[in-house]
């Protein structure tokens, strides 16, 4: 059986998560979320998650620390945080990005512990 459901999500009506993220479209094994206008200086301490994250920077700059590496993210850049990888971030310039997570980050309380990048 094929899942032929169609979903449309209007961002202005998207539910907000506990860390300020907007949840966008969610499928069976994948979800999207939006981080808007994160302020300069915002930091997230080291954490690891039980899902994989890929992201795209819409605007701004951030520094992603991933398993001992430091990656500068600028508008137009993409990143991957593998499942279980230790990571943290610091916002260097007001930051907006979209992420996809597999499996969906907000299901089964996966987002509850600490912010993810």
How would you describe this structure to a colleague?
It contains no helices and 7 strands. It has one domain (23-109): Jelly Rolls, CATH 2.60.120. The model has no long low-confidence stretch (mean pLDDT 89). 0% of the residues lie in helices and 50% in strands. Strands 1, 2, 3, 4, 5, 6 and 7 form a 7-stranded antiparallel beta sheet that branches. With 117 residues, the chain is an all-beta fold. It is globular, with a radius of gyration of 14 Å. It has strands spanning 22-26, 31-38, 43-47, 52-66, 69-74, 78-81, 87-102. A hairpin with a 4-residue loop joins strand 1 (22-26) and strand 2.
Quick description:
The chain has 117 residues and is mainly β.
Descriptive labels:
mainly beta, Jelly Rolls, single chain
Radius of gyration: 14 Å
What is the number of beta strands? 7
Uncertain residue ranges: none
Considering DSSP H and I runs of 4 or more, what fraction of the residues is helical? under 10%
Terminal CA distance = 34 Å
Give average pLDDT, whole number.
89
With helices defined by DSSP (H or I, 4 residues minimum), what is the helix count?
0
Q: Give the second-level CATH assignment, the architecture.
A: Sandwich
Q: Mind summarizing the main beta sheet?
A: 7 strands, antiparallel
Strand content: over 45%
- By helix and strand content, what is the structural category? mainly beta
CATH topology-level fold name:
Jelly Rolls
CATH domain class: Mainly Beta
Number of domains: 1
Specify the CATH homologous superfamily: Jelly Rolls
Overall shape: globular
Order of helices and strands: EEEEEEE
